[in-house]
Each structure stands twice: as C-alpha cells, then as structure tokens.
Amino acid sequence: MVEVLLSSMLATFIIGLSFGAGACMFTCIPTLGVMLLSQDLGAKETSLQTWRFNAGRMGAYALLATVSGLVGASLVGLLDMSHANLIFAAMLLFSAVLLWRKGRVAGCSSRKKKQIRAGLFGIGFAMGLRPCAPLAGVMAAAAATGSGAYGLLLGLSFGAGAIVVPQLVFGYGLGRAGGEIRSQLRGRQQQLSRVGASVLAFVGISVGMGWLSL
C-alpha cells in the first residue's frame, strides 16, 4: 500500500509540475504578476510574496483532495463554479483596494504589508478552489483511496509540483527583472500601485461577471 501511495504521489507531483509550467503559470500573470510589479519590493520580498500566493493554492488543493478522500467522491460535481468564481473575484477586489490604499501614501505600514500578504494568500487559495482538469483527476484519485489522509498527501504532492515553475519564474525571475523595471520607474510608485489596483479590479469584476475565466 505504501508503494502504491508513493507512486501515486510521484505521479500527481509530475502532473502538477506539467500543469504549473503551462496554463497555470499564465493565469498568474494578471493576478500575482500585477501585484508584484505594482509594489516597490526587493528580490527577497518578491520571493516571499510569491510563496504566500502559492501556499494559498497548495492549501486549496490539499483541502479539495482531503475532502474528496473523506467523502469517497470527487467534489468536482458538487462544487458550484459560479460561487468559486465569486470568491475569487471578491479576493481580487479586496487586494485591489489594499493596493490602491498603499499607493495613496508614501511608504507602507507594517499593518498594510500584512494585509497585502494575506490578500495574496487569499487570491491563491480562491484560485485553487476552482478545479481544473488535472486537479479533477487528483480529486478522483483521492476519492478512490477513501482516506482523508491519503487525499491530503495527493493534494499536497500535486500542489508542490504545480508551484515549482511559478515560484521560480515569479519569485526569482520577476524579483530580478522587476528590480530593473522599478528602478526606471522610481518616483512613480503611487501611479504604479494605482495602475496595478485598477488592473486587479478589472480582472476581478470580469471574473465575477463571467466575462473572463482564469
């Protein structure tokens, strides 16, 4: 049983890896990418904020797979995508407000930083609550085990694979490239934050109204 479980975890990790390197990464551009480029962050903070976003995604994958294992049935048919989209849209709008308020004043208090970090986790979690085809397969596999613990392990292994490439591209790559971009736009942080907040709000409204699917 242990060998079967380890093989399943390896398989779900590889599925997550291929998923994270493809469509998943591009859906992060108008959300995570905008949040990172709109703030005056160093390379380390960029990596940490990316991790918080990815931790939210992993949390959602683990939750869905665990519940699927517990109830012995995939949650895909039970989830209402319109509700999941509304939660996702609400988190985007919440983060847009935080980003706009951050750009209103010079500097940023530790409280605002914590709120933005929480917002990033929330966006990642809400994004992960909307099952894609690979995650639906993981949930079906978790349901077949009939165990919440096994479902949790499958969800975590899928999530670990899914975040590898986005963490490298956004956390490391954008941390380096973003520093160059921000150094050229230094002195325009307020405008940059407001443009980012406007983009997030637009994406949030579009997702909530069903005009856009990420």
From TrEMBL:
It comes from the Bacteria. Keywords: Membrane, Transmembrane, Transmembrane helix. InterPro entries: UreH-like_TM_dom (IPR039447). The chain crosses the membrane at residues 12-37, 58-78, 84-100, 120-144, 150-174, 195-213. It holds the Pfam family DsbD_2. Residues 12-203 form the Urease accessory protein UreH-like transmembrane domain. The keyword Repeat does not apply. This is Sulfite exporter TauE/SafE. The lineage of its organism: Bacteria, Pseudomonadati, Pseudomonadota, Candidatius Mariprofundia, Mariprofundales.
